[in-house]
Design brief:
1007 residues, mainly alpha, five-stranded mixed beta sheet, 45 helices, elongated
Length: 1007
């Protein structure tokens, strides 16, 4: 019964009319056409499979028996649908049917290399010469035909087993290895033919006195060959007996040429593949074959870095085995020390970019091998890691990509997940390549462009027995996902900064042996090499994965620590951090894989004592170092959501307050790490730190108010008003919070009870934000609340009602209080009350300018501050806050102008110094050059104040005098190593110029 078109479409046929004709053909008349049709579901290309099946039975009727049994029918149809070339070979070669008489096992069984060699040598009737070389009994076209037929019989057998496997992707390395072994066997037999032919020219005795070894390169050398590929080789020879060197070279060249000709020369049976000897010394311009000594001399003196990368795959595959093994031993030390060559890593990276740049534009998106996310990305990445780290890790000295990925993972050079993804992606891409090439046995690395060809490929990569429907779209989606994955891993691993640094170390430095390590530590400037060695031994001893990763990282990190101010502290801090994180898998892997993380961490640990302490207790924050987005400070909304969650989770006030302070410490660290990474400027740092403090105060105030209301009832609303640098959001690390407190009784509440409740809450708040806790919060920079800017200062009421503030400012406000109010800003508490307070003070601070008496008064106050508040014995030129041209001078000058002109110009109504400076320049109250000078002095003083607490853990308002301390501060401020003196010079120069402007503009109005 003729099948319907629907049945044919379901089986995968494209041309249903032709399929019906072939199924009704006389060649299949005596066969079970239903079985044949059902088997077509297993064929990648049913149209091709059916046509070849009809032709095969027509040519060899005995082939019909294979189509009578379900298993053999399915296997044959799958083969014919996968490879038109092998189908044609079956038709033209009767003996090929013997290869496929047995159904292939689902569990792939590779053939031993020796069996393949024997099969091909027998095909050319080879026999051993007196010197042990194989010599063919056949020559010329008969020998070539016999060799190529035997090769294709073995290839047919391999493809039949490959296509019959239930795990084609899993077995791919075994298939590729057998393909390489088969190529090696073909070269062995071709060399035997070449010896026989050369004997006619030079005589059997002379030819027998020339030893020739064929070195497999590339995929053949690595035993990971494709179905059809160039076979890269290098020839090495040696004359024996009394044979002259020149004659030995001539005969060896003839043997090498004859070997390639036997494989490649057109004939009755098509050529196998191209034998490519262009990887030899000097390439196409060099001698086809050289002696071992000549090879060695070339590699020692003239070879380029890329040649050693190519030699990583070198393996003796045919010819004189002993000579080939001597070649392997000769090149091995050169290959595995090649990464020590100047610019080695960069040259390999450049080579990969050059390969990508040379792809034809219309091929880039279709390339499986060379394009972005292709096989070359995997291979270059793996080979670079092998060459850099293989000199001390012998397990990495393997030529096969999949084995190298496994070794790199086991030794910790690639993360387990990344290695698994790399391996699976590589096998998948190679499987695509194999199935594409198998179709016509043509060398290609391009994804088919037509939907039909893509659908055939999608069916070809299925497991044997898998008849699930698949489509071109599914294949292309999976391929594109694989390319993206490979490309991301390639860019992550291939461009690691650790690779460049590691390659610049000597082998002894990488090994971290006690003697070499101590010598290097002393040379790098470690003050206590013995203590440093103890840290190294503690981190690297044992066989754990962590110890292996430490052995990989420390040789590089030791050098990076030495670039800091205190390398001993850097190493100690790294040990503390490593031990704090224990066996967590991500930390060391991040340092290995992330471009910025290792260098950032090294700089922090060796330059900033305080951040080292903070990281030791907030060790998980180290993960941020490898991710710029994670280092970005949380905005006010995110901080508030975080504090809300803490309060919800912790019902006990003491517990909630503790967790709020812990969260503040963590966010403080985030800002400092971002600052250290150069991701934030001074203004952003001040804004972020102000938000962190404000949200902490807000959260603790909520907790304390709720507790007080629960006990005493609700009598008042409270608001915290930021003053000073907190109000300007210009604080540094460890700054106090200058504030004022305002309260307003809730409707119906007694005024006295409201004041008492406000005072209780405020008093508790001041204590809660800064008092030592038990257990203590390690490395916390406690927030100190300072309310001394309130009306009447320390003697005045700690908290006042809004009406009390209104009355006080209406009657008693002095010019210094108006000045202080310039920076007032709601910080925490009741928002409406905070806004009402600002509305109350705006007419006061931005009112009618300054009269002559007020100008004199503010100048007098500034002079008194300079005379009385500067610590005794302090050098005015070096004091960061009150010194000459420092923070105080710039801020007083800005506020002086604001008091005079903010009533006229709204852009001067800002709490921020730098924004006010910008406005003064725009309004031309100050020139642009004056503003630039003032801003530089203010910014530098702010940076140095922050740097002092970050680098030493101590707050200081004085420019350091110690060269070591100045160097550490300079590093934080962005100066290059050994430029601390330049920071000092820049600061003194900037503040001197700022003071000149200050004296002219602040004290010179009467002139």
């Amino acid at each position: 019964m003729t099948p319907s078109s629907r049945e044919l479409i379901n089986a995968g046929f494209l041309d249903t009319t032709r399929a019906k004709q072939f199924l009704d053909s006389p060649e299949l008349a005596d066969l079970d056409r239903g079985l044949i049709l059902r088997s077509m579901a297993h064929a990648p290309d049913p149209d091709q499979a059916l046509l070849l099946a009809v032709r095969l039975v027509d040519k060899h009727p005995q082939a019909g028996r294979l189509l009578c049994e379900p298993d053999s029918c399915q296997a044959l149809i799958r083969l014919l649908g996968a490879s038109d070339a092998l189908g044609e070979f079956l038709i033209r070669c009767p003996q090929a049917l013997q290869v496929i008489t047995h159904t292939p096992q689902q569990h792939f069984q590779p053939r031993p290399p020796q069996a393949l060699t024997e099969q091909l040598l027998q095909a050319v009737e080879a026999y051993p010469s007196p010197s042990g070389h194989w010599v063919a009994g056949q020559r010329g076209e008969p020998a070539r035909r016999a060799l190529r037929t035997a090769y294709r019989l073995a290839l047919l057998d391999l493809a039949y087993r490959d296509l019959g496997s239930s795990q084609p992707q899993h077995i791919l390395p075994q298939v590729a290895a057998e393909l390489a072994d088969l190529a090696a066997a073909a070269l062995e037999a071709a060399l035997a033919v070449s010896r026989a032919e050369a004997s006619e020219q030079y005589g059997e005795h002379h030819v027998d006195q020339v030893r020739l070894a064929i070195i497999g390169m590339g995929k053949c050398g690595a035993r990971e060959l494709n179905y059809i590929s160039d076979v890269d080789v290098i020839y090495v020879h040696q004359g024996m007996g009394e044979l002259a060197e020149q004659q030995a070279t001539e005969i060896a060249t003839t043997l090498a040429s004859g070997t390639a000709r036997t494989i490649m020369l057109p004939g009755g049976e098509p050529p196998l593949w191209e034998v490519d000897a262009n990887l030899r010394p000097e390439g196409k311009e060099g001698a086809l074959t050289r002696t071992l000594a000549s090879h060695e001399a070339y590699y020692q003196r003239w070879a380029h870095s890329w040649e050693f990368q190519a030699l990583l795959k070198a393996r003796a595959i045919a010819g004189d085995r002993e000579l080939g093994e001597r070649y392997e031993r000769m090149i091995s030390p050169m290959v595995w020390s090649s990464s020590e060559r100047d610019g080695f890593v960069e040259s390999v990276q450049k080579m990969r970019r050059r390969v990508s740049a040379n792809i034809a534009k219309d091929e880039v998106e279709w390339q499986i091998k060379l394009g972005p996310g292709g096989l070359r990305d995997v291979e270059f990445t793996v080979q670079l890691l092998q060459l850099v780290h293989g000199r001390v890790e012998q397990a990495l000295q393997v030529p096969t990509t999949t084995l190298a990925i496994q070794a790199l993972s086991e030794l910790g050079f690639i993360g387990r997940t990344d290695a698994m993804n790399f391996d699976e992606a590589y096998r998948f891409l190679r499987l695509l390549e194999h199935r594409i090439q198998l179709s016509q046995l043509r060398r290609t690395h391009l994804m088919p462009r037509t939907e039909h060809a893509q659908r055939v490929l999608a069916r070809a990569i299925r497991s044997a027995g898998d008849t699930r429907l698949t489509s071109a779209a599914q294949l292309m989606r999976r391929w594109n996902e694989t390319k993206r994955l490979v490309r991301s891993l390639h860019e992550l691993i291939f461009y690691r900064p650790l690779l460049v640094t590691s390659s610049n170390l000597t082998t002894e430095e990488v090994r971290l042996t006690p003697a070499s390590a101590q010598a290097r530590l002393r040379a790098l400037g470690y003050l206590d090499p013995k203590a440093a060695m103890r840290h190294i031994e503690a981190l690297t001893s044992g066989v754990s994965r962590s110890a292996a990763l430490q052995r990989q990282l420390l040789p590089v990190l030791l050098g990076w620590f030495a670039e800091g101010v205190d390398p001993d502290a850097g190493l100690l801090g790294f040990r503390r951090l490593s031990e704090s994180l224990g066996k967590t898998h991500w930390f060391l892997g991040m340092l290995r894989d992330t471009n910025a993380a290792a260098e950032r961490l090294s700089a922090l640990l060796s330059n900033t004592r305080f951040l080292t302490d903070l990281l030791a207790v907030e060790s998980t924050a180290a993960a941020w170092l490898g991710n710029d987005s994670a280092l970005q400070p949380l905005d006010r909304t995110a901080l508030e959501q975080q504090s809300d969650a803490i309060i919800r989770r912790n019902r006990q006030p003491d517990t909630a307050i503790r967790q709020v302070r812990v969260a503040r410490r963590k966010e403080f660290l985030r800002v400092a790490l971002a600052d250290a990474a150069g991701l934030m400027n001074v203004s952003r740092v001040g804004h972020a730190l102000s938000d962190i403090d404000a949200v902490a105060v807000e959260a603790i105030l909520r907790v304390l108010r709720a507790a007080d209301v629960a006990e005493h009832g609700e009598h008042t609303d409270l608001a915290v008003i930021a003053m000073g640098r907190q109000g300007g959001q210009e604080i540094g690390y460890g700054s106090d919070a200058d504030v004022m407190f305002v309260q307003r009784p809730v409707p119906g509440a007694d005024g006295q009870q409201a004041q008492e409740q406000a005072l209780r809450i405020v008093t508790a708040l001041i204590a809660a934000v800064s008092r030592p806790l038990k257990p203590a919060i390690p490395a916390e920079v406690r927030l100190v609340i300072d309310a001394d800017l309130r009306p009447e200062g320390k003697t005045g009421a700690l908290v006042r009602s809004l009406d009390s503030y209104a009355e006080y400012y209406a009657r008693w406000a002095d010019v210094w209080e108006r000045q202080a109010l310039l920076r007032a800003r709601p910080m925490a508490g009741d928002r409406q009350l905070g806004e009402d307070f600002i509305a109350l003070i705006n007419p006061i601070r931005y009112g009618g300018g300054l009269d002559e008496a007020e100008v004199k008064e503010i100048r007098k106050i500034k002079a008194r501050v300079e005379a009385e508040r500067l610590p005794r014995g302090a050098d005015p030129a070096r004091h960061l806050k009150l010194g000459r041209g420092s923070l105080s001078d710039v801020e007083w000058l800005v506020q002086f102008f604001q008091l005079q002109y903010a009533c006229e110009h709204e852009q001067l109504r800002t709490t921020t110094t730098r924004a006010a400076l910008k406005a003064l320049a725009e309004l031309k109250y100050l020139s642009k050059s004056e503003v630039k000078t003032l801003d530089m002095a203010w910014t530098l003083a702010t940076k140095v104040r922050s740097a002092e607490i970050i680098t030493s853990g101590r707050s200081s308002d004085v420019l350091p005098r110690s060269a070591r301390d100045m160097e550490a501060v300079g590093r934080w401020c962005g100066y290059e190593p050994n430029q601390g003196y330049q920071l000092e010079d820049d600061y003194l120069k900037a503040t001197r110029r700022a003071r000149t402007i200050f004296e002219k503009r602040f004290y010179g109005f009467e002139d």
